[in-house]
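Tokens as discussed.
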């Protein structure tokens, strides 16, 4: 899943890049993988990114972030710019999701070496997609609950 207010430019950029550039590459390796994109304030242009052929579903406003997160295994936050601590990353970890993000996504949270999720580059869609595929296939890691344990230690 991805979540972010469409009005915030870094979120809109990340969602568009994820759907248009990254997700088609994920689907080449995992043809049944689905991406749910949640976010308030979407425009008709944002809604038009919904693409059943690649399993990208633009869901719109999310009434309950915890409920949505409980239905997913993975948060993908391919943030290419922005500032400050990313609430979506911390909330995903709190709910036990595996997180794939960028160096921008972990700013103020952890270093790339100590972050319990996956940190990929936001420059190369193929590399980012490869990391998403790796995370989706790493069942042992997300079943171990190490994401939540990392939060407790912080």
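Sequence:
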């Amino acid at each position: 899943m991805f979540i972010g207010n469409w009005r915030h430019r870094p979120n809109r950029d990340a969602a568009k890049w994820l759907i248009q550039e990254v997700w088609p590459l994920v689907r080449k390796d995992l043809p049944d993988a689905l991406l749910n994109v949640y976010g308030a304030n979407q425009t008709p242009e944002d809604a038009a990114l919904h693409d059943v052929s690649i399993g990208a579903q633009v869901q719109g406003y999310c009434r309950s972030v915890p409920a949505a997160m409980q239905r997913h295994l993975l948060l993908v936050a391919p943030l290419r710019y922005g500032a400050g601590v990313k609430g979506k990353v911390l909330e995903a970890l709190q709910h036990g999701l595996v997180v794939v993000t960028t160096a921008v996504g972990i700013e103020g949270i952890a270093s790339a070496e100590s972050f319990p999720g996956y940190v990929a580059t936001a420059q190369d869609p193929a590399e980012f997609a490869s990391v998403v595929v790796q995370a989706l296939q790493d069942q042992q890691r997300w079943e171990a609950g190490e994401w939540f344990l990392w939060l407790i230690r912080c």
